[in-house]
Amino acid sequence: MPGFRGSGGTVAIIQARMTSSRLPGKVLLPLGSRTVLDCVMRRARCIPGVDSVCLAVPEGEVHQPILDLAAAYGSVRVTRGPEVDVLRRYAIAAREVNARYVVRITSDCPLIDPSVSGEVLAAAVSTEAYARTSFETGAPLGLDTEAMPVRMLFEADAEADAPFEREHVTPYIWKRPERFGATYVDRSPDRRSWRLTLDEKPDYELISAIYRELGDDDPPFGFGAVEALLTAKPELLGINRSVIHTPMPKA
User: From 3.30.420.40, 3.90.550.10, 3.30.565.10, 3.40.50.720, which CATH number describes the 10-193 domain?
Assistant: First the structure.
């Protein structure tokens, strides 16, 4: 949606913690001259239509380094909530920042493309429905963005009771398209075999290689640049080919 600028109260909420089971402290690993989380926050701020950025951080002193980074970064709100019940953490954040629309981003995606995320947000606003990038129809892991009117997040928080629905935030919503709607931003050509998210050390090695090649200048490079690089140097994709993706539970 060209020229879409936001509706007031459109907040990108980034979940971030220090206690990743597979790669602890990954959000503070360096990428170029920045940290992983710095890169994610910077990209979130560039999403067309986003008015502000919020970090949803678990309670506990172990996560203090994230708060310190946010304070140094400036212009980013921090809210606190449960570590395992991430849905509740998001609901707390959305209430505290008085969000009208929520863009959900995870801190393990330092290659999100603001323009792609902006398409997702614009779809959610124009349809008043849930929207996301679609891994099933071509998007690689690592461009993950979801957007929705905030009421959907609050309804899910009030009603969802399955542990995986609480941990993964939106399953209660996307499992009910007849109630919440569903718009999927597709990718062409199909890049589902590309793993551009940060869960394990080989993922970090690949993402670091991409940042070395493309730099971390402003504005941040988009997925088109990543696509061109990996097409020209397909050997880079072998760096994290051994990492096994854990699929989302179905029920």
Answer: 3.90.550.10
C-alpha torsion angle, residues 138, 207, 54, 7 (rounded to 10) = -40
Q: What H or E segment, with its residue span, contains residue 147?
A: strand 146-149
Identity (one letter) of the amino acid at 176? R
Residue-wise pLDDT for 5-50, tens only, equals 444 599 999 999 999 999 999 999 999 999 999 999 999 999 999 9
Sheet order of strands, 146-149 included: 77-81, 52-58, 10-15, 101-106, 146-149, 131-133, 183-185
Q: What is the pTM of this model?
A: 0.94
User: How many C-beta atoms lie closer than 10 Å to residue 237's C-beta?
Assistant: 15
Q: Distance of alpha carbon 98 from its chain centroid, rounded?
A: 20
Residue that has been written with the tokens 């203090």 in this structure: 64
Please tell me the distance from the alpha carbon of residue 222 to that of residue 66, in angstroms, as a whole number.
25
SS3 43: helix
* Residue 185 in this model has a pLDDT that exceeds 50: yes
Give the H or E element holding residue 131: strand 131-133
